[in-house]
Amino acid sequence: MAPTNIFVINNDQKHGPYTLEEVQIRLQSKQFHPHNLAWYEGITDWLPLAQLINLPIDPVTRPRRRRRRKSPGFSRASFLIAIIGLGLWVIVFFPAVAINSGSPSANSPAAMVIGFLNYVTMAANVAGLLLAGVAFNRPHSNQSMALYGAMLNSLEILFGIFLFLLV
Q1: What whole-number distance in Å separates Cα of residue 79 and Cα of residue 82?
Q2: What is the residue-wise DSSP string for 133-154?
Q3: What is the pTM of this model?
Q4: DSSP per residue over 22-67, as a string?
Q5: How do residues 17-42 score in pLDDT, each as one tens digit?
Q6: How many CB atoms lie within 10 A of CB 121?
Q7: Range 6-61 has CATH code 3.30.1490
Q8: How far is C-alpha 150 from the geometric centre of its chain's CA atoms?
């Protein structure tokens, strides 16, 4: 006896009840796939439709899972530059304040090293800000991480300008 009142799970939703003929018509029209699970009264577990109606399983007809596209990493790079920049600014700031309070000449080696580190760190922050801008225009990037990276890099650039004026 052919099963009646068949329920089918398709796209994470339960459909039915269907007769066996209705299920076969939906399989032929590709509304259902042989790998969709089905159940009818009298069986204990949900079974693939192919097993229920004795179809050969064709791997081509298996519905493909949607892959999550991988983020290109621009937002992560921007945020990472901002975090590393914070550490560099801490390293640069305290010697700059010490040099400024001691009033050494602007040509002293320590002042030149601090000035060079200031430029390097600001250049990295500008690069981080540009990466955040690129990340905002990418559909699969982490927008919140790009925003935090942009904000931190912008603040660090302002801090670099302040430090440049200080030394």
Answers
A1: 5
A2: HHHHT-TTS-HHHHHHHHHHHH
A3: 0.52
A4: HHHHHHHTTSS-TTSEEE-TT-SS-EEHHHHTTPPPPGGGSPPPPP
A5: 998 889 889 988 989 988 899 988 88
A6: 24
A7: yes
A8: 16
